[in-house]
């Protein structure tokens, strides 16, 4: 049972949903059955269900009904973050700063957990990005940028860290920071990426960490400049 203290922070339906998820329940009863079980009106349950869907707790489909989903932090972060940035545009810089500190703090734990397959994937990402950067006309390796960072931190067993990092890249795209055509800037960014991956490949994690920090400083300067332009 959900403790009383935690239940005070959840609606009646969400408290029930949390208990069922903890039991490993995959499919919930219909709204009519839940209405009787929880003593709530169907209309109130529909509203609560919409909240649960927005937070990524459940999936609702015509044939399968209400299905419990594995917990992920990302939907909650993205909903709140999109709202915050809409209200105050420079919130994107604050979130970017948070993401930078998280990557720096978890760097050693993350890279020491990578498998040989992960390292091969990172090196392949670098090769694809190099081909794009040398193409005529140049192609922006944004998807590779996302894949590289998320792969480096993919072995961290922390749902909250993963949710924040995943949300960063979704918002990064949404506010238009993935579109940047300064070739010299891109070449500098990917030089740091190359240093990071080379360091990981050779288990020289300190050098990789130093390249990460230098890369973040460069990205932060660019974001400050670009967010001002994007929201003018």
Q: Biggest β-sheet, characterized? A: 3 strands, antiparallel
CATH fold-level label of the largest domain: Four Helix Bundle (Hemerythrin (Met), subunit A)
**CATH level 4 superfamily of the largest domain:** GntR ligand-binding domain-like
Summed over residues and divided by their number, the pLDDT gives a mean of 89
Radius of gyration: 21 Å
Spell out the helices and strands N to C: HHEHHEEHHHHHHH
Distance between the termini: 51 Å
Percent in strands: under 5%
**Helical content class:** 55-70%
The number of distinct structural domains comes to 2
CATH level-1 class of the largest domain = Mainly Alpha
Number of strands: 3
> Judging from the principal axes of the Cα atoms, what is the shape?
elongated
Based on the structure given, which CATH architecture of the largest domain is correct?
Up-down Bundle
Structural class: mainly alpha
- Going across the major beta sheet, what is the strand order? 1-3-2
Q: Spans with pLDDT under 50 lasting ≥5 residues?
A: 227-232
Count of DSSP-assigned helices: 11
Structure description:
The structure is a single chain. The chain is mostly helical and 232 residues long. The protein folds into two domains: 4-68, Arc Repressor Mutant, subunit A (Orthogonal Bundle); 74-230, GntR ligand-binding domain-like (Four Helix Bundle (Hemerythrin (Met), subunit A)), CATH 1.20.120.530. The protein contains eleven helices and three strands; from the N terminus they run ααβααββααααααα. It has helices at residues 4-7, 12-23, 31-38, 42-54, 74-87, 91-111, 116-133, 142-152, 159-174, 183-201, 205-230, and strands at residues 27-28, 58-61, 65-68. A hairpin with a 3-residue loop joins strand 2 and strand 3. The longest helix has 26 residues, at 205-230.
């Amino acid at each position: 049972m959900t403790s009383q203290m935690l239940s005070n922070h959840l609606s009646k339906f969400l408290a029930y949903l949390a208990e069922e998820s903890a039991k490993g329940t995959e499919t919930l009863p219909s709204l009519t059955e839940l209405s009787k079980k929880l003593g709530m009106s169907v209309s109130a349950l529909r509203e609560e269900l919409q909240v649960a869907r927005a937070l990524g707790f459940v999936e609702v489909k015509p044939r399968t009904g209400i299905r419990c989903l594995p917990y992920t932090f990302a939907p909650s972060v993205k909903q709140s973050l999109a709202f915050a940035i809409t209200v105050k545009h420079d919130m994107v810089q604050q979130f970017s700063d948070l993401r930078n500190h998280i990557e720096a703090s978890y760097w050693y734990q993350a890279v020491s957990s990578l498998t040989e397959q992960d390292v091969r994937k990172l090196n392949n990402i670098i090769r694809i990005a190099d081909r794009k950067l040398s193409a005529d006309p140049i192609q922006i390796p944004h998807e590779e940028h996302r894949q590289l960072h998320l792969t480096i931190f993919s072995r961290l067993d922390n749902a909250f860290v993963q949710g924040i990092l995943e949300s960063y890249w979704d918002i990064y795209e949404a506010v238009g920071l993935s579109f940047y055509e300064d070739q010299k800037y891109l070449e500098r960014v990917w030089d740091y990426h190359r240093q990071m991956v080379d360091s990981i490949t050779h288990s020289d994690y300190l050098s990789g960490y130093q390249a990460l920090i230098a890369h973040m400083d460069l990205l932060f300067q660019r974001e400050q400049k670009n967010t001002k332009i994007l929201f003018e």
